Amino acid sequence: MTSLPERAARRCHNMVNPLHSAVYFSPALGKELAPYGIEDPSAVYFAGRAAPLGAASAGTVTATFYNFSHSLVSRFLPAVWESASPATVLAARLRAVDTMLRELLGEEAVASPEMAEAAGLALKAAEACTRPGRPLYAANADLPVPEAPHLAYWHAATLLREHRGDAHIAVLLSAGLDPLEALVSHTASGRGMAPKWVLSTRGYNQQDWTAALERLRERGIVDSEGELTEEGGALRKQLEYDTDRLDSGPYEHLGAEGVARLTELAGGFAASASNAGAFPADLFGKG
Cα torsion at 12, 13, 15, 16 (round to 10°)? Predict the structure, then answer.
């Protein structure tokens, strides 16, 4: 039985995750990797996120990232590791995170007691993350914790994000949603990425999107207009509840007071980053 208020863990995750995700939209990562010949935005993303796995193959990344087209992944992997080793990419990633956080939050916030407190809370939560069945979390958990509090906070946010993400993939598989069906149904909920962002970053085309919509219609998940049906809405809610259940450990370990405080601190940092332009304005939505 949970000791936390309903959805408290999910709310905390939703506040912590943005600073992890922001690095993939920041020009800082591309600037750090460009001297090694890694310049395509997809190559930058795959290298930056997959580096903790070692010199991962296209198959490994397709499996662990889940919602990217294998044809897109295989355009860049494993070839990207010929340009820069995983260790080189990891060092570049941390430099990019440092630059990004200083630009988005400002020097005062980066050096603040609140940042150090948030790092401590997030790292405490991550103590209860588990490796089995969670490859992206496990790979990042094998990395050292950076000494600087703002980098330690980003590292902890990464651990918590990948821990939940690995669990969510298990839930999607159990629900029988393939990678693009998962994306399309999430977009239909109004909370997922806008179609243009899915198509421009995940390696799919409009024909793929239309085919996924048709499969979802046949299952009664979306209607003729591409909107979620009652059954589809219930499915999306169940996916999140099931993910919450599999991801409850870190937040139960932190406790209700710690979760509330981390949510408060992380929410402030996330809002500052968003206001500073960390994410495209049209990233989410049905349009």
Answer: 110
pLDDT tens-digit profile of 10-54? 999 999 999 999 999 999 999 999 999 999 999 999 999 999 999
d(CA 280, CA 118): 25
Q: Report the C-alpha gap between 209 and 222 in whole angstroms.
A: 13
Q: What is this structure's pTM?
A: 0.96
10 Å CB burial of residue 202 (0-12, 13-18, 19+) is buried
- How many angstroms separate the Cα of 287 from the Cα of each of 29, 186, 198, 235, 279? 28, 13, 11, 22, 17
User: How deeply is 243 buried, as exposed, middle or buried, from its count of CB atoms within 10 A (0-12, 13-18, 19+)?
Assistant: buried
* Alpha-carbon dihedral 242, 184, 131, 154, rounded to 10 degrees: -110
Mean of pLDDT over the chain = 97
Q: Residue 2 has what pLDDT?
A: 60
Query: Rounded to whole angstroms, how far apart are CA atoms 6 and 177?
Result: 26
**188 backbone dihedrals φ, ψ, rounded to 5°:** -65, -25
* Contacts of 258 by beta carbon, 8 Å cutoff, 6+ apart: 121, 124, 125
CA 212 to chain centre: 22
